[in-house]
Design a protein that fits this description.
The complex is a heterodimer.
Chain A lengths: L1 E6 L6 E4 L4 E2 L12 H10 L4 E10 L5 E3 L2 H8 L17 H4 L1
Antiparallel strand pairs in A: 1-2, 1-4, 2-3, 4-5
Chain B lengths: L5 H22 L5 H9 L3 E3 L4 E5 L5 E3 H14 L3 E4 L5 E6 L1 H12 L17 E2 L14 H11 L14 E4 L13 E7 L5 E7 L12 E7 L3 H15 L10 H8 L1 H16 L7 H9 L19 H9 L1 E3 L5 E6 L10 E3 H14 L3 E4 L5 E7 L3 H10 L14 E2 L14 H13 L3 H4 L4 E4 L13 E8 L2 E8 L11 E2 L6 H18 L6 H8 L2 H8 L1
Parallel strand pairs in B: 6-7, 7-8, 16-17, 17-18
Antiparallel strand pairs in B: 1-2, 2-5, 3-14, 4-5, 4-13, 8-9, 9-10, 11-12, 12-15, 14-15, 18-19, 19-20
Helix pairs in contact in B: 1-2, 1-4, 3-4, 3-11, 5-9, 6-8, 7-8, 13-15, 15-16, 15-17
Classes of the chains: A alpha+beta, B alpha+beta.
Chain lengths: 99, 544
């Protein structure tokens, strides 16, 4: 699947396209399919997102979304060396998902 | 240390106002990202993996306690309670909001700091010896010359759009503690045969994807021609440096392709022309700047005795101090490399503590080291034990300077959008492995440096042991390098062979140290043994 991601213009925080708006959670991401470029152009010009791009990802059996490249998995979760600053600070085992 | 005059403050304040307006226009949609990006980069604001990152300039690494307190306050107010000290003696914040960046810059300006020219194709922060003004072995304090260069290079209209970024280091000792020959221009303050003080110019060094050691271009430039000669070096580069290929755009490529003699000849030609243009500031200006770097009020007749009865203190004093030019004083290094910690990171609380200790014990001065530690340059030997006890209580007393635990590591893939692999976890695993096995002391001086990509912010080319993280079909892979040095015996490390995974690289480092321990001769460091026996025994141990 093609998933759209970028950084929030005001805060710089990583965001994911959920079909209607930008979410902080990668698991909210939807398949943008052939519409990826159209959505990216529209959202950039509307100043809702910065430096947005499409990536390959897979939907896992539990419904979660796994970006194909480790860089995007780090973006999705947060720095692996600071579990307290990740999206799942109470789940240190989540770091294994990145690798 | 240098204090802003009204012109300095006005320039920085004006830049804050200008950036506020630029950021406002970006947020209102009046600037596109393509238009805004070069403007934010000129103010040190990057967009990294998780958020905007701000790089703050710390000129030649010198800070006072008010500035360090402000850096701590900024970490709390605008970031997530910490900052990262970098290999260019700067500090970076990882979680900055664009909508707050103007306020942050205004807070910085209130303590005579800024983020100008910490990014982009311009002359970056001038770096220097972290023991400048304190070291027993220095000819003079190099910082007045670094400050003069800072003023010359700040907003220099001709050099704000160079082919590529440009880095200058200034030292004044035969011992190089600033990786001087791995800069675009490295300047060593020297004395000639007539006893006059001047500058030796090394041009065309650098790390990155094409590492090169800067050759000597001119062995003596009189002090009253420092700026004119620097300008000539830059002009030749600005005119002939490649702009068609960013990977060949650094001055090292130009010097290499022209040859150092031809490059030097062209600089001489430009230098002769510029001497008729009257661009050199009067020596009186250098003298004025130098007054800001006058020695603090050192006491005389102080004790030079150290009570070494506490073995933990003795170990720290042996490893984390450096001889001072003034009897009774010493420079103390605060390690930001706790075993298992993140190299170069400091919490706001730690920054406040360091600032308070600098105020109390080091004439209000600190230095950021390019090795990502902090120096208190002027500590009374009689105060050293008390200082250590306070550092220990604050978790800042790690005794590991220049050991295998004192690893330089770039932010890597945990933070950096350019990185291919994570650097910090590898540093943590190596430091922990050797600390837990109690092998750190046995290995002595061993400089290990890790970069998460070919851009080499972690100086892997210059490590006695270097590690380069690469992307191998979507997974992290680590190449091992041996034999680098960024000291006065500058050399570039060589790759051993095929890379390793995250755990494999830790094992590989241990195997390399096993070879060293088995083969070393009396008094040899790891680097000395490598240079004597060559790569083959290490390859045999790693891949045989």
């Amino acid at each position: 699947m093609k998933v759209l991601t970028g950084n929030d213009l005001k805060t710089g925080l990583v965001v994911w396209w959920n079909g209607q708006e930008w979410s902080r959670h990668v698991d909210d991401a939807v398949d943008a399919g052939d519409e990826a470029n159209v959505i990216l152009a529209r959202e950039e010009s509307a100043r809702r997102v910065n430096a947005a791009y499409a990536i390959d990802a897979t939907r896992e059996a539990d419904g979660s979304i796994r970006p194909a490249h480790i860089k995007d998995r780090v973006r999705a979760l947060g720095p692996t060396v600071r579990p307290d600053l990740t999206m799942k600070p109470a789940e240190p085992e989540a770091l294994n998902w990145v690798i | 240390m240098y204090l802003y005059d009204s012109y300095d403050q006005a320039m920085v304040d004006a830049r804050v106002a200008e950036f506020r307006d630029q950021a406002r226009r970006r947020l209102e949609g009046k600037l596109t990202e393509d238009q805004f990006k070069p403007l934010r980069l000129q103010n040190g604001l990057y967009l990294q993996l998780h958020a905007y990152m701000l790089r703050v300039a710390v000129p030649y690494g010198t800070l006072n306690s008010a500035q360090m307190h402000m850096l701590a306050d900024i970490a709390d107010k605008y970031d997530r309670g910490y900052g990262h000290f970098t290999t260019r003696q700067n500090i970076q914040y990882n979680w900055i909001k664009l909508e707050e960046a103007g306020d942050l810059l205004a807070d910085l300006a209130s303590v005579e700091m800024h983020a100008i020219q910490t990014s982009g194709n311009c002359i970056r922060n001038i770096s220097s010896d972290h023991f400048a003004g304190a070291a027993a072995d220095e000819l003079v304090d190099p910082r007045p010359y670094a400050e003069l260069l800072r003023q010359w290079s700040s907003f220099h209209p001709e050099f704000l759009h160079l082919p590529r970024k440009f880095k200058i280091a200034v030292i004044a000792s035969d011992t190089d503690r600033a990786a001087m020959r791995l800069h675009d221009i490295g300047i060593q303050i020297v004395k000639n045969d007539a006893g006059e003080v001047g500058c030796a110019f090394y041009v065309g060094g650098g790390m990155g994807r094409t590492p090169m050691v800067a050759p000597l271009i001119k062995d003596f430039v009189p002090l009253d021609q420092l700026i004119t000669y620097s300008e000539a070096c830059l002009r030749v580069y600005n005119r002939y440096g490649r702009r068609d290929n960013k990977y060949k755009a650094r001055i090292k490529i130009l010097v290499h392709e022209l040859g150092k003699d031809e490059y030097a000849r062209q600089v001489e030609e430009e230098f002769a022309h510029l001497q008729s243009q009257g661009i050199e500031p009067p020596l009186a200006e250098l003298a004025r700047i130098a007054t800001f770097f006058a020695d603090p009020a050192f006491e005389s007749g102080l004790s030079t005795e150290l009570d070494r009865s506490n073995p933990d203190f003795a170990l720290w004093a042996d490893r984390n101090t450096h001889p001072h030019k003034q009897a009774g004083y010493i420079s103390a290094v605060i390690s930001l490399k706790p075993v298992g910690g993140i190299p170069g990171d400091a919490s706001a609380e730690q920054m406040h503590t360091i600032a308070d200790l600098a105020k109390e014990y080091s004439f209000d001065e600190m230095r950021v080291m390019h090795t990502q530690n902090i120096v208190l340059p002027h500590v009374k030997i009689a105060d050293l034990h008390t200082l250590w006890a306070k550092l220990e209580a604050a978790g800042l007393g790690t005794p590991n300077l220049d050991t295998i635990e004192d690893i330089i590591a770039c932010p890597g893939l945990d933070y950096c959008s350019l990185a291919n692999a994570r650097s910090i976890p590898v540093a943590q695993k190596i430091a922990t492995r050797f600390a837990e096995k109690g092998r750190t002391a046995e290995l002595g001086e061993l400089k290990l440096k890790i970069s998460g990509c070919i851009n080499a912010c972690g100086h892997h080319h210059a490590g006695h042991i270097g590690i380069l993280g690469v992307d191998k079909k979507g997974t992290e892979n680590y190449q091992l390098l041996l034999g680098g040095s960024e000291a006065q015996d500058t050399s570039l490390a060589k790759i051993t062979g095929p890379g390793f995974d995250e755990d494999g690289i830790v094992d590989a480092v241990e195997k390399a140290t096993d070879v060293y321990l088995a083969q070393r001769q009396q008094g040899e460091r790891f680097l000395d043994t490598y240079r004597r026996i060559g790569m083959d025994p290490f390859k045999e141990a790693l891949y045989g």
